[in-house]
Each structure stands twice: as C-alpha cells, then as structure tokens.
Amino acid sequence: MSTSNQHQFRYTQTPSKVLHLRNLPWECSEEELIELCNPFGKIVNTKCNVGANRNQAFVEFVDLNQAISMVSYYASSSEPAQVRGKTVYIQYSNRHEIVNNKSPGDIPGNVLLVTIEGVEAGDVSIDVIHLVFSAFGFVHKIATFEKTAGFQALIQFTDAETASSAREALDGRSIPRYLLPDHVGSCNLRISYSAHRDLNIKFQSNRSRDYTNPMLPVNHSAMEGAAQPTIGPDGKRREPESNVLLASIENMQYAVTVDVINTVFSAFGTIQKIAMFEKNGQTQALIQYPDVVTAAAAREALEGHCIYDGGYCFQ
C-alpha cells in the first residue's frame, strides 16, 4: 500500500479526540509528545511507551476538532510528523478517552496531587495552599513543583479519609480570589490521589514544607519570609503565625457581612482583603493584614470574644 493510501486510510477513520501514534523512538517522553502535538491544541492526557517495543503512545486532546486538525495537517503535508528524526505515524484511536490503569488518581490515599490551573509558579504561595487545605484537617507536608501539566502540589494528610474530604470539597473549585495576586483572574484546582504515602521533605522552603518536623533545616534563601511551625513551652505544636487569619463565627443570630468583619478587625490595623464562605453550615472568614504582628494582635484580642453581646463569637 502506498504512503498516500496509508494517510488516506488513517484520515477516513472515525474521528476521536484520542490519537494513536506509532513508530516513536525508544522511551519517548511525555514532553516530546506534547511538543509534537501542542501546535494543534491542548493536551489533557497521554499514555507513553505502549506496545511490545515501547514505541507507541496515545495522546488525548481537550477537543475533538483539535485532534482532527492534527490528523488533517499531516495527512496532507509533504513533511511527516517526526520525533528525534523518526517518522511518526498518526491515526485516530478507537477509544474516546485515555484511561491510565497504572495511574493511582482514583485510588484513595492520604496524599493528594493538586494541579492549580491558570497560574504560574509563584502566583500561589505555599502558605495559601496550606491555608486552603488545612481547613479539612492537619496538613503534614506540602511539596510544590512544575510539570507539563502546570503548577502542581503534593499535599499529605493524616489519612485517606481526610484527603478524600478535601478532594470532594475542592476538586474543580477555585482558590478564593482574595488570596490571589491581582494579575491572576482565577485558578481552578484539579485534584487526584497520589501513589505517595509519605513525602520526603529535606528542608523547609517556599517550595516544600514539613509541618510535623520543626527541627528540619531551613533553606533561608528560598523561604521568602514564610513562617514555620513551632513547639510551645508546653511541648504542644503551635500554629504557624501568618498575616492571614481564619475566623469561625459561632452562635449567629443574624447574618454577619463583610462590612461587619471589616469594622471589627480593622480596629487593629489596615485590612488588605476579606473572604467569607460557608463550611459545614458555619460561617467563616479569611482576613488578610499587611504583616504577621498585626494579625497576631487581632487574634489575641478577638479569639473567643463576641462581636456583640449575646452572640457572634469568634473561634
């Protein structure tokens, strides 16, 4: 069969947003596949090194038209698709999505893999990540990094039950706008389970944090002023100080608004941002001050007290 007929055969298959690539070089990486396919659209999943010779792969586009665009281009081009100088044969797959059986993403575990979409490294600090996820339980460790999927974080909880609660509540949601830099419009959280069970954090930095080991060496050049957990005189773990307070409002008789929160907390200093939300039927608020000292003063004065006599207690 001639080359042109092979192209025509592949082109006339039933289109799918999953493409089957053959004749790839040995141990072709995900990065190489994405580099080949990126000009035609966004890649949402890959499956590499398939087949007895490990020279095949599957690539899934976010949209069917993007896959059609790639197949159509190489079906009519005089220049074949190539990776490392090898001609790659492209055809539609008979599957409509990639299911990586080796992926632990749907197997519950105590470590979550979080992809923060719409941001770059540095847009979301490790302290903000800790603040968001610690609302569901004690966070043991966090490690952040960049991959082809984007800015990601591994977040270790005590057990799978706590991790599952966080995933169920946050997957597909966005970090509150008030906690993001002004230039970031929105960022969605895409959360799956990781195969890791215990993260190996070698030092505290703005990229990794071990909240269970206050004696871990600190990489001062990478801390960017982030506060670390400490042990109090009674031997118990003390919460790390932050310029952002999480206030839970109890015994409410009437609605508490952002203006009310601002009036109460601004008595201690300038408030930069306020975010209010409901969690487990309880009203909570995030209050951001310019510095840790001001936030600590507000917490010491208000914790356990009431906004008005008879109700609205802060915890």
Automatic annotation (TrEMBL):
The entry's keywords: Acetylation, mRNA processing, Nucleus, Repeat, RNA-binding
Pfam families (alphabetical): RRM_1 (PF00076), RRM_5 (PF13893), RRM_8 (PF11835)
Organism from which the protein derives: Cicer arietinum
Compartments reported by the entry: Nucleus
PROSITE patterns on file: RRM (PS50102)
Record carries keyword Glycosyltransferase: no
GO molecular function annotations of the record: mRNA binding
Protein name: Polypyrimidine tract-binding protein homolog 1-like isoform X3
Ligase found in the keyword field: no
Superkingdom, natural source: Eukaryota
